[in-house]
Amino acid sequence: MAETIQTLEELSSLKPAAAPQPPQYVQKLDKQGRAYATGKRKDAVARVWIKTGGGKIVINDRPVESYFARPVLRMMIQQPLVASNRQGQYDVVCTVSGGGLSGQAGAVRHGLSKALLRYEPDLRPVLKRGGFLTRDPRVVERKKYGRAKARRSFQFSKR
Q1: First-to-last CA distance in the chain?
Q2: Burial letters for 96-114: b for 16+ Cβ neighbours within 10 Å, e otherwise?
Q3: CA distance 140 to 150
Q4: Is 60 within 8 Å of 67 (Cβ atoms)?
Q5: What is the 8-class DSSP label of residue 5?
Q6: Selection from 62, 54, 50 nearest residue 109 by Cα
Q7: Which of 8, 55, 67, 135 would you label with 97, given CA atoms 20 to 30 Å apart?
């Protein structure tokens, strides 16, 4: 049991417990010098590998311009690189499955952010502030019985 403190001198002699140290993040690379991460959004899952290079992005063996034709989706994928000021420094290879194009772009962005973090742990504050490391939990609500869709009822008629 702890001793009782009688005087102020005894109180000042007590040292406060050391604050817990934040976890130290270390670089995690495979044998080819790549960082790997998995990103998810809605029903889409993206497996992302990054390594130093000229900034080439390949998704499912196709260049990003042909896979994501809409500029908004391409811009969405580039966001973590732009926020960390690393565009044009990494080659990105992705395999994406499930969901639609918007969900797949979000999954690639999430996976790219996590892979960047594994390659350069010092980028964590920048990526965290941009919200790129958080998995978006929103998914489609399921359809309920007795309803036309998840919430919409069938059309009401008095007759």
Answers
A1: 79
A2: beebeebbbbbbbbbbbbb
A3: 9
A4: yes
A5: P
A6: 50
A7: 55
80, 91, 89, 71: which is closest to 127 by C-alpha? 80
Torsion angle defined by CA atoms of residues 18, 23, 27 and 29, in that order, rounded to the nearest 10 degrees: 140
Concatenating the DSSP letter of every residue in 56-115 gives -EEETTEEHHHH--SHHHHHHHHHHHHHTT-TTSEEEEEEEESS-HHHHHHHHHHHHHHH
What is the Cα–Cα distance from 41 to 30, expressed in whole angstroms? 25
Separation between Cα atoms, residue 46 and residue 1, nearest integer Å: 54
H/E stretch holding 47 = strand 44-52
**Calpha distance 105→20 (Å, rounded):** 37
CB atoms within 10 A of CB 150: 10
Closest CA to 96 of 82, 85, 110: 110
- Per-residue DSSP letter, 42: T
Distance of CA 70 to the CA centre of its chain: 21
Q: Check: CB of residue 95 under 8 Å from CB of residue 37.
A: no
Distance CA 86, CA 132 (A): 15
CA–CA separation, 136 and 153 (whole Å): 28
pLDDT in tens, 76-86: 999 999 999 99
